[in-house]
Write a structure and sequence with these properties.
The protein has eleven helices and twelve strands. The chain is α/β, with parallel strands linked by helices. It folds into two domains: 2-103, 60s Ribosomal Protein L30, Chain: A (2-Layer Sandwich); 116-260, SPOUT methyltransferase, trefoil knot domain (Alpha/beta knot), CATH 3.40.1280.10. The longest helix is centred in the C-terminal third of the chain and has 17 residues, at 244-260.
Length: 261
């Protein structure tokens, strides 16, 4: 294990750049994972060949980190830094003590007759997008399409919100939603806070494509007009709408419920 004493170490500088810049992540083809949960999940699915792991002094006293390090192959580079230096590398307020620089994974589409796509437009908050991806991966969604106006699914905050969803679910960035929706061979639905049929009365059989808009403006009319019909979620107490993450979760779990009932 290498002991690093300078915050200007090239690997640490790379970690900071990848944490802050989607362009750098795309150009380098690498991402930063923060925390034992994400690193372990990535290791299980893709391995950590040629990865670089950065640990602070505190992490080396944790049993789960010790177990992870012991299971690594020799081609994984291990760097130990002080807690102070690590604080400047990690993108979270309370660092876990472990980050990894890894290749951006490629998750291929599952070839199946079953199809449930989620098309997202204007989801700009990375934490919210991560939560949506987590709900999608936990249900029947088979593919996620993100418009150019969505947050980067590989940012550290989105990865933490997704809790590994990006490793299990095909996610297409900067997708041409209008083209994808127009060519989809199945039922396309949009959501509305005030019109359309109630979710509880809606059949959500696959193949299905669900369109959702951003936190503020919602789904624009150009995309909404491509839907076969519109669905609304019934609300009490004169509430006008739900957070988009909550709305996606409710619809996805209702689709899952219908598919197994």
């Amino acid at each position: 294990m290498e002991r690093i004493t300078s915050a200007q170490n090239p690997t640490l500088k790379l970690a900071r750049k990848l944490s802050r810049s989607a362009r750098d992540r795309e150009e380098q083809g690498k991402i930063v994972l923060d925390g034992i949960r994400l690193v372990s999940d990535y290791l299980e699915r893709f391995g950590l060949a040629d990865a670089s792991l950065v640990l602070n002094e505190s992490a080396l006293s944790k049993s789960d980190v010790i177990g992870l390090v012991a299971a690594l192959s020799d081609d994984v580079r291990l760097l130990q830094v002080s807690d102070r230096i690590f604080q400047g590398v990690s993108s979270v307020d309370t660092p876990s003590g472990l980050i990894a620089i890894v290749d951006m994974p490629t998750v291929t589409d599952q070839q199946s007759k079953y199809s449930f796509w989620l098309a997202l437009d204007g989801i700009q908050d990375p934490g919210n997008l991560g939560s949506i991806l987590r709900s999608a991966a936990s249900t029947n969604v088979t593919k996620v399409l993100l418009s150019e106006s969505c947050a980067d699914p590989w940012s550290p905050k989105c990865l933490r919100g997704g809790m590994g969803a990006q490793f299990a679910l095909p996610v297409s960035k900067c997708a041409d939603l209008k083209r994808a929706i127009s060519g989809y061979n199945g039922t396309c639905i949009a959501t509305s806070s005030h019109e359309g049929q109630s979710l509880v009365d809606t059949k959500l059989a696959a193949p299905l494509l669900l369109m959702m808009g951003g936190e503020g403006a919602g789904l624009g009319p150009e995309l909404a007009n491509l839907a076969d019909f519109c669905v609304r979620i019934p609300l009490n107490n004169h509430m006008e709408s739900l957070n988009v993450g909550a709305a996606v979760a409710m619809i996805c779990y209702e689709q899952l419920r219908q598919s197994i009932s």
